[in-house]
Amino acid sequence: MSDIIDEIVDYASKKSKYAEARYIESEVNQFSMRDGSFQGGSSSRDMGYMIRVLNNSISIAYSDSQDFNEVKEVIDAAVESSMRPGKDKLNTESFGTAKWSVDARKKPADMSPEEKISVLKQMDSVMEETKCAVRMNHIIDAVTRTVYRNSNGSNIESESTRVAYFYMFGIMDGGNFEQSTGEYGSSSGYEYIESLNLQDIISDEAKVLRKAATAHRIEPGVMDVVVGPEISGIVAHESCGHPTEYDRIIGREGALAGESFLKVSNIPYKVGSEHVSVIDDPTVKGSFGYYMYDDEGVKARKRYLYHKGMTDEFILNRESAAILGKEPNGGGRSSGWDREPLARMSTTYIEPGDYTFDDLVSDIKNGVYIKSYTEWNIDDIRFNEKYVGKEAYRIRNGRIEEVVRRPIIETTTVKFYSSIDACGNDPKFFGGLCGKGDPEQGVPVWMGGPHVRLRGMYIK
Amino acid sequence: MNMDGERRIYELLRSKGLENIIVTGIKEDTRQLRFSNNLKDLTNYWKEEYAVVFSSLGKKVASTTIKSFNDLEKQIDRFVSLITSLPENETFHGINSQKMDYSSIRDVSWEHPDIDSMAKEAIEGALSAGAQRATGLVYSRSWDVSLVTDYNSCSYSMGDVELVVRAFTGDFTGQESLHAGPDSINKMNPHDVGFEAGMTSREMPRVGKPRPSRYTVLMSPYLLGNILSYCSMYFSQYQIDSHLSPLESRLDTEVSHKSFTLMDNPLDYGGAGAVPVDDEGTPTRKNTLIDHGVVKTILQSYSTAKMHGTETTGNAGVISPKTWQLEVLPGTRKFKDMISEIKDGLFINNAWYTRFQDYRNGVFSTVPRDGVFHIKDGGIDESWSGIRISDSFLNILSNIKDISSERKRVKWWEEISPSYLPYVLVDNVEISMTS
Question: Which residues, at least 6 apart from A183, have a Cβ–Cβ distance to it below 8 Å?
Answer without folding.
Answer: A164, A165, A166, A430, A431, A432, A433
